[in-house]
Amino acid sequence: MKRSHVADGVTLIELLVTVAVLAILAMVATPELRSLWLNHEVNTALNALRGDLAYARQEAVQRGTSVSLCPGNGTRCSQGASYDEGWIIYTSTDGSAADVSFDESIAQLRLLKRVTRQGNVALRAADGNRVTFGPQGQLKAVEGRSEQSWRVCMRNAKAVDGASTSAVIGFELVLNGMGSVQQRRLAEGEACDPSP
Fold first, then answer.
1. Which of 4, 40, 103, 146 has the fewest beta carbons closer than 10 A?
2. CATH number at residue 116
3. Which residues are within 8 A (CB) of 86 and not within 5 positions of it... i.e. 6 or more apart?
C-alpha cells in the first residue's frame, strides 16, 4: 500500500481570512476594552481613597490622638481641593495634627502614609481643608464643616476636572461626622466637582 504525503498546514487564503476576522474583532472590542480599563482606573482610585480614610480613622483610634489626611505631593499638603497628585496621612507627637497642615520640615509631625497619583483620574474634594479624625474616630469639624465629600472621575478632553459618562461612571464618597463613608454613583454628565 502506497501512502501519499500531504503537508499539514494552512493555505495563504486561510491565513488571510483568519487575520481579517481577528482585525474585525479587535476593532469591535477596542472601545469596550478601553472603557473597561478606564473604569478600572476610577475604581482603583476610589478604593485607594476609601481605604486610606479607614486607615487614618483606625490610626487615630489606636493612637488615641488626631490623624489627618490632606491632598499633597508627598512633602507637604497642597492648598487646593485636588487630590490628583496624591495625598498624605500624618499625625503629630503633640496632638497638633488637627491644627497644622503637613510639612516634612515641621519636627512634631509624623508621616504615616504617602500616596501618589492614581492614574489619569480626576479626584476632587468639596474644599481644600484637611480631614482630621479624633481619638474616637470621629471627623473633627473644620471651619464649620461637619462632613467632607470627594468625586472620582476619569479625565477627558471636554472636562479637565472630569465627568461621569455612560462608558466610565464616576463616584462620590461622603465622609460624615461619625467617620463613616458612603458611596454613590454619579449620574451621566455629572461633573467631578463636589463643591457647592
1. 4
2. 3.55.40.10
3. 71, 72, 73, 74, 114, 115, 116, 117, 118
